[in-house]
Amino acid sequence: MEMDNISSIEGNEDEEMQSAVSHCNQNAHSHQCSSKPLSGFVARLAPTSVHELLECPVCTNSMYPPIHQCHNGHTLCSTCKSRVHNRCPTCRQELGDIRCLALEKVAESLELPCKFFSLGCAEIFPYYSKLKHEAVCNFRPYSCPYAGSECSVTGDTPHLVAHLRDDHKVDMHTGCTFNHRYVKSNPREVENATWMLTVFHCFGQYFCLHFEAFQLGMAPVYMAFLRFMGDEAEARNYSYSLEVGANGRKLIWEGTPRSIRDSHRKVRDSHDGLIIQRNMALFFSGGDRKELKLRVTGRIWREQQNPDDGVCIPNLST
């Protein structure tokens, strides 16, 4: 269904909208507003009209049943009702247990665009299905992948790349291979904190290489893993390998990068990456084993679909 099919409600349709709200106000002395259907009510409204009618005045989110109201007809969502200590935030009157069923019926009759329509989503949903879709919409913004702090920044990939470079001072590299050296003066002090995040740009995409130390049970470990700055379906088009070793020993990990839709903690706690136990890390470091010196190498490649049998084969070109 095309976006330009969504038109504003004018004239009598606006009057019916106001009539629905007035009907709630007139019946506020009872415990529920009438749920009588609104004859001739058009099931599609301009987004601005909907927001004005169904936006909670406290949290400004869209309201879903049960929608509560005070004796003067002011509405709010069920989540915020408990937060305002049973007092209407608009007129300060006691709320009681009054529901506006007429307004709930209005919501039930609506079809609205996804709230991410400005980012490219052209889907239209019934009001009560819209929220479920938006939680998994492919056009929803990504969260900042930086794990060193609780960063609340969201946006598309270009915005987050600029944010990582300018605000978090993350190292940026171009190419599909990496060769990093990690040094820690006291490897016995392990904190749940990221050591390093590096962003790689290759195949026209961005990848985040994480390397950190954390406590796994009673034992400290070191872990490296790759995340793809895009959705999971796109991430499956790529593979990567990580390698660490010295003194005639070597550990190798190969896998698919995880999407940044999965949080840093979720990936880390699933152990989906190269995990190096402390004793092995110290062995790789050599010397007197009092300083951690690890060299992690690896590469990223794109999987190429074989049209004959549907099997992905490595494409190592950049």
TrEMBL record:
Q: Which residues form the SIAH-type domain?
A: 109-169
* Keyword Transferase on entry: yes
Keywords recorded for this protein, A-Z: Metal-binding, Transferase, Ubl conjugation pathway, Zinc, Zinc-finger
Q: Quick one: which pathway?
A: Protein modification; protein ubiquitination
Q: What class of enzyme is it?
A: transferase
Location of the RING-type domain: 56-92
Which biological process annotations from GO are given for this protein? ubiquitin-dependent protein catabolic process
The Gene Ontology CC terms held by the record are: cytoplasm
Entry annotated with the keyword Zinc-finger: yes
Q: Which reaction does it catalyse?
A: S-ubiquitinyl-[E2 ubiquitin-conjugating enzyme]-L-cysteine + [acceptor protein]-L-lysine = [E2 ubiquitin-conjugating enzyme]-L-cysteine + N(6)-ubiquitinyl-[acceptor protein]-L-lysine
Q: Which GO MF terms are attached to this record?
A: ubiquitin protein ligase activity; zinc ion binding
- Which EC numbers characterise this protein's activity in its record? 2.3.2.27
Query: According to its UniProt record, which protein family does this protein belong to?
Result: Belongs to the SINA (Seven in absentia) family.
Q: What is this protein called?
A: RING-type E3 ubiquitin transferase
Q: In the record, what lineage is assigned to the organism producing the protein?
A: Eukaryota, Viridiplantae, Streptophyta, Embryophyta, Tracheophyta
